[in-house]
Write a structure and sequence with these properties.
The chain is of the alpha/beta class. The protein contains 13 helices and 7 strands. It has a 7-stranded mixed β-sheet with strand order 3-2-1-4-5-7-6, sandwiched between helices. The chain binds S-adenosylmethionine (SAM).
Length: 302
């Protein structure tokens, strides 16, 4: 998290964090102290760190899932859709669900679902439109957009590429439920190696760059450019520094669970686009400004 160092964390606890800490007051005072001390950057013993870690992964589905695989779409799906309330969510999960950071991820989905149809419409003027949803998870964003706007046309289609077979199975179920399964192909594998038979008009890269350093982001954007048409459109998102500034305690909890982000501002994302050979067109954000989606077009070809 090299570029996060400049930011000086505000050592204060908002209402939600105070409520979470008060849950541990009686029975888990050591966990409360660990959370406060680790957040303040004070030393914590291996013994208490281990106690917390065990508690964290055995009492929170968010934590268990991110520790096992920080880039899993299981987490993004929880963030979009909440947790089934057969049992009340645990204190940590309740905290995550109510946090501003979580609400911003849900708002990111909403922002994409509002912007994507506008971009599709621009490309529809030229003919049929093919979307590549890379690292799609189930691909809820495209499924929702197709279901709302393109159910009755065959002119707009998508290919969802993900290395997680179960996420794709989930996407197939969602697409069927929403009546758009005939418009989407699901491909299992790495999008870095994927060569579509037809190039994409629009490529979506959402929830992929967030944990990655600049050089890796540039390399990924260069790779995906090969599957994008000349004049095509890349939409690539990243968590912004505003999330770290305005919800630092949630970011701290996330980092304890192996969920580490490289927060980037608009200029940094712009720089990544430029260095990877894209012309930066514009960007849009979720309503909290915690996620920036860059929009660009390839400048040159290999
Ligand atoms: C955080 S999830 C985001 C899912 C979805 N794009 C969204 O915004 O809801 C990241 C997804 O990217 C997938 N992924 C990461 N690297 C990948 C790669 N090289 N090839 C294919 N899938 C990848 C993961 O399996 C996971 O489903």
């Amino acid at each position: 998290m090299k570029n996060n160092k400049k930011f000086v964390k505000k050592i204060e606890f908002d209402k939600a964090a105070t409520r979470l800490l008060s849950v541990f007051e009686k029975e888990h005072k050591k966990i409360k102290n660990f959370l406060i001390n680790s957040y303040k950057g004070l030393p914590v013993s291996p013994e208490i760190t281990e106690k917390f870690y065990n508690y964290f992964i055995s009492h929170s589905v968010f934590s268990a899932a991110t520790v096992a695989n920080p880039s899993t779409s299981v987490i993004t799906e929880f963030l979009y859709d909440g947790i089934e309330k057969l049992n009340l969510p645990s204190p940590i999960d309740r905290y995550f669900l109510c946090s501003k950071a979580r609400r911003s991820i849900k708002a990111r989905l909403q922002a994409i679902e509002e912007e994507l149809p506008k971009i599709i419409e621009e490309y529809c003027k030229k003919g049929k439109v093919l979307i590549g949803n890379l690292g799609s998870g189930p691909g809820r964003d495209v499924i929702d957009v197709f279901s709302a706007h393109y159910k009755n046309t065959l002119d707009v289609k998508a290919i969802h590429v993900d290395k997680d077979r179960l996420a794709l199975e989930r996407g197939k179920r969602m697409a069927k439920v929403k009546g758009v399964d005939h418009l989407i192909e699901f491909v299992e594998g790495s999008f870095l190696k994927y060569k579509p038979t037809k190039k994409f008009d629009i490529t979506l890269l959402i929830g992929i760059l967030c944990p990655l350093e600049f050089k890796v982001c540039i390399a990924i954007l260069k790779k995906v450019k090969k599957s994008l048409k000349k004049g095509g459109c890349l939409i690539a998102g990243n968590v912004s520094k505003k999330m770290l500034e305005e919800d630092p305690f949630t970011c701290h909890l996330m980092s304890l669970g192996n969920w580490k982000m490289v927060f980037k501002d608009e200029n940094e994302l712009k720089e990544i686009f430029k260095k990877a050979g894209y012309e930066w067109k514009r960007c849009f954000t979720d309503s909290y400004g915690f996620n920036i989606m860059g929009v660009g077009t390839p400048r040159f070809y290999f």
